[in-house]
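Exercise 7.
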Amino acid sequence: MVTDQIADYLTRIRNAVSAKHRVVEVPSSNLKKEMTKILYTKGYILSYKFVDESAKSTIKIALKYHPETKMSAITSLERISKPGLRKYTNSKELPKVINGLGIAIISTSKGVITDKEARRLNVGGEVLCYVS
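Solution. The predicted structure, written as tokens, is:
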């Protein structure tokens, strides 16, 4: 039994990137699906597929690497809000990751969105993770 689903999700991706795997498979949840969609739209992953089998549903994520240097598009994944200590922020104090080069994924009342979208919508929420 995993207590922190998001930390497990990020760790699986981080481990697959460090081992230079092409595809990583993670257990599915609605929050992880939304985070995966954000990673895809922002260009951090190549593609994804939601696999719904009878007993368990999973997400297959194809990781993105530079064709010549073999460097991953994801350089760091950092969990911010933890089950023991939640981190909330309002719209005026939203974090900038690497001065805007990375993204922060935030769970808001408008759904799971990036820090830039939250600033545009003028909403705050729980800071889930930083991606760069």
